[in-house]
Amino acid sequence: MLTPNMNYSHLKNSYLFYNIAQKTKDHLSAHPDTHLYRMGIGDVSLPLCDAVIKGLHTAADDQANASTFNGYMPECGAEFLRKAVAEYYQGRGVELADDEVFISSGASDELGDILDIFDRSNRSLIIEPAYPAYVDANVMSGREIVHMPSSRENGFLPLPDENTDAELIYLCSPNNPTGAVFDREQLKKWVDYANAHGSVILFDAAYEAFIEDDALPHSIFEIEGARTCAVEICSLSKTAGFTGTRLGYTVIPKELVRCGMRFNDMWVRNRTTKTNGVSYIIQRAAAEVFTPEGQRQIHENIAIYKNNARTLMQALDSLGIWYTGGRNAPYIWLECPNGMGSWEFFDLLLNKAQIIGTPGEGFGKCGEGYFRFSTFGSPEDTRIAAERLIELLK
Predict the structure, then answer these.
(1) How far apart are CA 389 and CA 382, in angstroms?
(2) Other CB atoms closer than 10 Å to residue 160's CB: what's the count?
(3) What is the pLDDT of residues 221-264, one digit of tens each?
(4) How many angstroms separate the CA atoms of 72 and 198, rounded?
(5) How far apart are CA 166 and CA 148, in angstroms?
(6) How far is it, in rounded angstroms, from Cα 258 to Cα 269?
(7) In terms of DSSP bridges, do strands 200-204 and 168-172 run parallel, antiparallel, or are they unpaired?
(8) What is the pLDDT of residues 338-362, one digit of tens each?
(9) What's the whole-model pTM score?
(10) What pLDDT, on the 0 to 100 scale, is given for residue 41?
(11) Are residues 262 and 119 part of one domain?
(12) Is residue 44 domain-shared with residue 102, that is, in the same domain?
């Protein structure tokens, strides 16, 4: 008799986005003419930049001619795109070989798939509040999870200590949901811990393009020693608006070796076995992101989201509400006012100001009493939402 993967029975039902959708639906049913100010979305609202669109059109035209047609692409990524990503890193002083870069269909895919190359006996440390997929991917694969709490007291950026004990370590910086960013000294402590204990850091850098403080690292490979203990996973979803176009990349240095096994070689074998690569059209469009013109255009869009963040931050400052994130991240993580619970605050904002955010409780127990605002909405909606927030809470 066939046995299913019983680890799925251990998954906790996630009511976060279902409850948000249901509460929103009920509110609109009762108030059909109401406009809602959606500050909870994790999706982008601006279209792809012109350089990317031109790349898509050119690549599509290539597929119409026998001389330029492309079928299956290399499973680990087209050479032109792997080279473009490596050169992007080199621009920040990080030397990578082209074949240390692997092109994927997005960071979410890689964060789950990468577990294939680690034995199931390895425990995974997840700092909470956390992106829910970290937890669920590990539950599905039957791994023991070490939950590390974070709080306002440590800026939601905890560091390893004598009680830390895990083989796989998830770090997300800038963080989703908190927007907090590790500095170089803090990341060095995690790198030193990983090297001393033989652990591997899975570094989620999906929001690195939002860092504006030059003193903060965009990549874990800016930290000495990271090449022997880290894998970095990144995405163009928020950087360049590829949420619907889907492309990301993973960096695995050749120095990353455990028990005589080189993880770069293992990942080559994994990808050549389990994927047929990302389409030519998407990879050609992604290559445009890394051109000077593409970089200029995507940072024009990012500047709009950053201005949304400043608008919300100014409102919270005027109200005396504590928060982190915003300046170097597209998310703002705030403490609910007057000791309110995160769902209680959600209901207040929805019913009294027609603002939708994300209750912190949905990101783990450490998120109770906190709330996440996204800065990916339209500038006009963000401005009005900030005004309504001040009027409601002043």
Answers:
(1) 10
(2) 19
(3) 999 999 999 999 999 999 999 999 999 999 999 999 999 999 99
(4) 37
(5) 11
(6) 16
(7) parallel
(8) 999 999 999 999 999 999 999 999 9
(9) 0.96
(10) 78
(11) yes
(12) no
